[in-house]
Amino acid sequence: MNDEKDILVRQSKWNGRRVVLFYWFTIAFMGTAVAAGLGVSILEPSFKFEAHDHSDIEDPWGPDDCASCHSDTVDSWNDTWHSEFVGDKLVVNSTHVVRYGNNPFMPPTVWTLEEFAAEGGCCMVTRWENTTQPEDLEASGTFWDYGITCAACHPEPGVVSESPMSCIPCHMGAGGAQYPAWAQSAHSDSLDDLLASGQAESSCLHCMAGQATYKDLSEVDPTDTSLTNIWCATCHDPHDASINAAEASSAMGPNGHQLRAATTNELCGTCHTQFDFLTDAGNDSQHSTLSCTDCHGYQWIPAHEGTDRFGNPTVVPAGFASLNHTWEFSPFPEACSLCHTDSNVSLGLFVNATTVWTAMQGYVGEVEDLVALYDTKLTNVSAKVEEANTTKGIDQAVVDAAYDLLDEADDLADAYDTAFHNPTLATEKLQLALVKLDQAYAKAVEAIDGAKSAPGFGWLLVLPVFGILAIIVGKKRR
Predict the structure, then answer these.
(1) Is 53 helix (H, G, I), strand (E, B) or coil?
(2) For residue 42, what are the contacts with CB-CB under 8 A and spacing of at least 6?
(3) Backbone dihedral region of 313: left (phi > 0), alpha (psi from -120 to 50 degrees) or beta?
(4) 0.70 cut: is pTM over it?
(5) Would you tell me which of 181, 251, 271, 322 could form a disulfide with 207, CB atoms 3.0–4.6 Å apart?
(6) What are the b/e assignments for 368-405, b being 16+ CB within 10 Å?
(7) DSSP characters for 320-337?
(8) Which range is least confidently modeled, 158-172, 190-204, 360-374?
(9) Which CATH code fits 354-452?
(10) What angle is formed at CA 280 by the lines to CA 275 and CA 284, rounded to 5 degrees?
(11) How far is Cα 58 from Cα 192, in angstroms, rounded to an integer?
(12) How far from chain centre, in Å, is Cα 278?
């Protein structure tokens, strides 16, 4: 009997082991199959983005080589200033090279062939190499193309350079001094400053990274080494002149400034909230019709006589402005005098520049006084709310309401940074911020007073003791 029992036990154990082995085998088999599936679908995806093989493109290459795949880009580039250095912009004859600027009222630059070959051609043609053989510029092999074509900005086919280094050779000196000015601006250090702050998040990159306007940076690591500071292409589209064509004028040429937004205000407003204050419906000032660049970034050049691109004599008046890419506020009285001129005053359109400047300084001073009052009150209110938050037995909902009011006040107080753009609105918002601080203080006091008047937990422990003593005393009396 015992032998039969032992046999049954052994069979039972073996059956159990077989079941376990079966499950282990199944898991291993399925795991292998799943891993194989992952290997096909994820580790080696069936769809791969293969970069185009550009090895068949030989030097010198240019728009004709790129147009077969990038026809839209080449077509839009054809309408930019960079493409137009031949014909109206760059005229070459047997003795001279004449370059007409983007502004039709500016005099042209004229070189002899020798001068052009030695020093003048680097910004008019692509892949320039100095030469001493000017007899036949096109046959000399010293450059690839007239105009700034693809190879001027792309180191090789299929490679994109996201660096101002590609712009510096032409935008460095007189007539193209945008780079030195940009290098003095906060734009040139935007990402560096963000990383140095220790507070860098991907949510900051929409304003602080150079690729913000033409790439999705919502989930990009701020320390990604492919990111740059705000640079030329952040604001300007090198391939497209149509976006802000509506702002084009005779002084600007038919191509506008190749901005990535329809207007300068819209472009600046993507990061600078002062634009919102300037154009706010509550702003009854005529300044709401201005462009950011009417006051920021202008530099004035001396008056001079010259010839426009059509050969007509012209006089460039004193005060003719060009953009300075430091974007510093233009010094008084030049910026104000663009509109507040003596002739306009005589027509009754405006007060003079000195008067309006004095008035604006007064408005800004009033806003600064409100800011000082806000800062002082904020310190006291914040301390009171913190006291409430650490008080035992407080109503947390009341304290949370106080914190919400502090946040609302902080958002409103940001208005101080826009005092000059809309002093009326800035004053209103700061006054409302002060009211929010008063409300937050009242909530904090309410929470503290409520906690003091409520019975503490100690009484809850004492009451049962009194109850027990009462029962004992009652029994003894019986």
Answers:
(1) coil
(2) none
(3) beta
(4) no
(5) 271
(6) eebbeebeebbeebbebbeebbebeebeeebbebbbeb
(7) EEEE-TT-PBPPTTHHHH
(8) 158-172
(9) 1.20.140.10
(10) 120
(11) 38
(12) 19
From residue 460, alpha-carbon distances to 137, 255, 293, 394, 463 in Å are 101, 81, 70, 17, 6
Give yes or no for a cis peptide into 60 (omega within 30° of 0). yes
Tens of pLDDT, residues 183-224: 889 999 999 999 999 999 999 999 999 999 999 998 899 999
**Secondary structure class of 66 (helix, strand, coil):** helix
**Please, are residues 253 and 102 in contact by the beta-carbon 8 Å criterion?**
yes
Of residues 149, 127, 168, the one with CA closest to residue 70: 149
Per-residue pLDDT of 89-114, as tens digits, reads: 677 777 777 777 666 566 677 877 77
Q: Which of 68, 41, 64, 40 has its CA nearest to residue 52?
A: 68
Residue of 120, 89, 126, 135 lying closest to 308 (CA atoms): 89
Q: Is 80 exposed, middle or buried (0-12, 13-18, 19+ CB in 10 A)?
A: buried
- In single-letter form, the type of residue at position 66 comes to C
Q: Please give the Cα distance from 35 to 251 (Å, whole number).
A: 65
Beta strand 304-307 pairing with 313-316: antiparallel
* Cα 145 from chain centre: 34
Rounded CA separation 226/244 (Å):
28
- Break the chain into its structural domains and give their ranges: 69-160, 354-452
Element at 316 (helix H, strand E): strand 313-316
CA distances from residue 414 to 273, 351, 366 in whole angstroms, order as listed: 10, 30, 15
Helix, strand, coil percentages, rounded to 5, for the chain: 50, 10, 40
pLDDT at 438 over 90: yes
- Classify the phi-psi angles of 183: left when phi > 0, otherwise alpha if psi is within -120 to 50, otherwise beta: alpha
CA distance 319 to 72: 40
